[in-house]
Structures are given as C-alpha cells and as structure tokens.
Design a protein that fits this description.
Helix 1 packs across helix 3. By secondary structure, the chain is of the alpha+beta class. A hairpin with a 5-residue loop joins strand 5 and strand 6. It has 3 helices and 6 strands; from the N terminus they run ββββαααββ. The chain has one domain. The protein is globular and about 40 Å long. Bound molecules: FE2/S2 (inorganic) cluster (FES). The site of FE2/S2 (inorganic) cluster (FES) has 10 residues, from loops.
C-alpha cells in the first residue's frame, strides 16, 4: 500500500505509481474514478478506456479503489465523469 503524503499545505497526494503495467494505469487514475463512484477494477478500466489484459493487477486495483472510496465516503458529492469516447458516467 502506498501512503498518502501531506505537502506543506497539508494537502494529501499520492506518489506517481503504476498499478496496471499492461494499460499504463496509475494509482491516481484509479483514485479519480473511485471518487466518481466507480466501485470495481473492471468498471474503472472501462471508464479509462482500457480493459484488463493479464489481470495480475486487479487485486491491487481493487484495494486502491476501496481505499479511496473509504477515504472520501460521506465527503464526496455525487459527480459525473466524462469518458474518453465522449460518453459519461454518473453516480447517484
Ligand atoms: S498489469 Fe493490469 S492487466 Fe496486466
């Protein structure tokens, strides 16, 4: 697990780290889609315009998504996300 680091303004950030090598998906990519309500890795990859290939990363991706959803639970308003193809994904 990668720990969040607080900068001088006490804003949290996560060091750049790839979760999925096959698709070049970074941890922050997953955290962003998780904050928009995506709850599982395959849905997150689809939102990012990708699909799992070797699938080695899926357990770690799920951990990242769950961690981010727990971190912002109750604080993050429902939002919509524009997909790479121009579609959208909305959370209730
Ligand atoms: S490392 Fe993610 S699909 Fe292969």
């Amino acid at each position: 697990m990668v720990r969040a680091i607080a900068n001088a303004s006490q804003q949290l950030y996560f060091p750049l780290m790839y979760v999925c090598i096959c698709n070049a998906i970074k941890e922050e990519d997953l955290r962003e889609v998780a904050r928009h309500g995506v709850t599982d890795p395959e849905a997150a990859y689809a939102v990012l315009g990708k699909a799992p290939q070797c699938r080695v990363c899926l357990d770690h991706a799920e951990d990242v998504i769950c961690e981010e959803r727990a971190r912002c639970a109750g604080r993050c308003p429902a939002r919509s996300l524009t997909l790479p193809g121009g579609g959208s994904f909305a959370t209730a």
